[in-house]
Amino acid sequence: RQVVEIKLQPNTVHILHQQTDSSGNKLPQTQENFVADFCIATITPSLLHKIENNFTNDFQKALLYGVTNVPAGKVAWQADRFWEADKYQIYGGISWTSDDINQIWYPSTGFHNQRGILIGAYYRGFPESTLGFGNLERATRIKHALSEGIKLHPELDPSYKYNDLSKAMTIAWQDLPFQDNGWVRYSAAQRQTGYQIMLAGQQNKFFMAGDAMSYMPGWIEGAVGAGLLATENILQQLTQTSS
Fold first, then answer.
1. What is the pLDDT of residue 241?
2. What is the pLDDT of residue 24?
3. The dihedral of CA 146, 150, 151, 153: what is its sign?
4. Are 117 and 169 in contact (CB under 8 A)?
5. Rounded CA separation 15/1 (Å)
């Protein structure tokens, strides 16, 4: 279900849900209103801003301008484990490149099995290559990863037996429904303004969590820490109410 409206009332939070299909398209006549005393939202700020709401203007501006979305994408496929042969003797880890693909990741398990999953490209950040990656067709993404990876590993030539490109997968996180980014980042000024406004929540009943509300965006540890902080904020409100 997709959240389509958030309205803060004096003592409650009203959340309107809309059922959607797997592509995020809204299905008709499937809305449901949920009422709660508190709400913890893990929706990324840029998507939260797009939901119908009655947040304050400062909070709305913080969602839109107080944080920056970082695009990211990967290409991976199944391959015979040529990297573990005597020529390379690579057992897990990462090769860094100066090309657009940036990194090649090798599996850290299943050593000397016949096949493994090779990550042949990890686009991220704000180079034009990353921003344009999401606009490419799947076949073009794969071809680009191979053409640059072959500089390091000749075995990535499509004519070699090693690659099973029929099983290749690609992803551009910023283009996924309900995602909008690979992760977020903050400038020093954004940390002092937008981040603090979002962290404070709304009316002591609506709080944000998720890795975007931490000092470790993009990591599970950041998401867990933000969730604990939001929970503590609610417990503080309950304690003050009961005392």
1. 75
2. 67
3. positive
4. no
5. 11
pLDDT confidence tier of residue 243, bands split at 50, 70 and 90: low
Residue pair 16/4 in contact by the 8 Å Cβ criterion: yes
Q: For residues 34 and 12, is the Cβ–Cβ distance under 8 A?
A: no
- Identify the three-state secondary structure at position 70: strand
Q: 74 in helix, strand or coil?
A: strand
How many angstroms separate the CA atoms of 189 and 160, rounded? Answer: 51
Q: Which two tokens stand for residue 214?
A: 């931490």
Which residue, 59, 67, 61, 9, is CA-closest to 39?
9
* Closest to 67 in 3D by CA, of 48, 41, 53: 48
* The predicted structure's pLDDT at residue 109: 95
The amino acid sitting at 194 is G
| Amino acid found at 51 | I
CA quadruple 112, 117, 121, 126: dihedral, nearest 10: -120
pLDDT of residue 138: 92
CA distance 16 to 191: 30
Is the separation of the CB atoms in 119 and 203 below 8 Å?
A: no
**Single-letter residue type at 22:** S
Residue 242 has pLDDT above 80, yes or no: no
Helix (H, G, I), strand (E, B) or coil at 204: coil
